[in-house]
Design a protein that fits this description.
Layout lengths: L2 H19 L8 H4 L7 H4 L5 E2 L5 E2 L8 H13 L5 H8 L3 H12 L2 H4 L3
Antiparallel strand pairs: 1-2
Length: 116
């Protein structure tokens, strides 16, 4: 096999992974997500909140964040690809549907108007 053939084969094998990486976030239900935020609002629902575990840092604002980013972040915490212990533990309890619903909620206007 020539070098060009090997490169072409490697490129073809990489295409499905590249396509998957660009896949849109799964459809979620923002209203359903608003009923699943109890594990999120304790940190992400307090303006200016800082945590002390595992270190002191400002908790990121997730309301208005892009849906695909939220889905990917939660999936990465659940898979152990991100290292924050509390987020890993919470994400481990979430189904794909929960993640999609939470992402739909936090990326929507509902997260800015909810009283919870």
């Amino acid at each position: 096999m020539t070098t060009q053939s090997l490169l072409a084969a490697a490129f073809m094998l990489a295409l499905p992974g590249a396509a998957l990486a660009q896949a849109p976030a799964p459809a979620g239900d923002a209203a359903a997500g608003s009923q699943k935020i109890e594990k999120c609002i304790g940190c992400h629902g307090i303006v200016g909140w800082r945590t002390a575990f595992p270190e002191v840092y400002n908790v990121p604002k997730i309301g208005g964040q892009h849906q695909t980013y939220i889905v990917r972040a939660l999936q990465e915490y659940r898979a152990g690809e991100r290292s924050h212990p509390s987020m890993k533990a919470i994400a481990a309890t979430l189904s794909d549907k929960d993640i999609a619903d939470l992402a739909a909620y936090y990326s929507s206007a509902l997260s800015k108007t909810a009283s919870k």
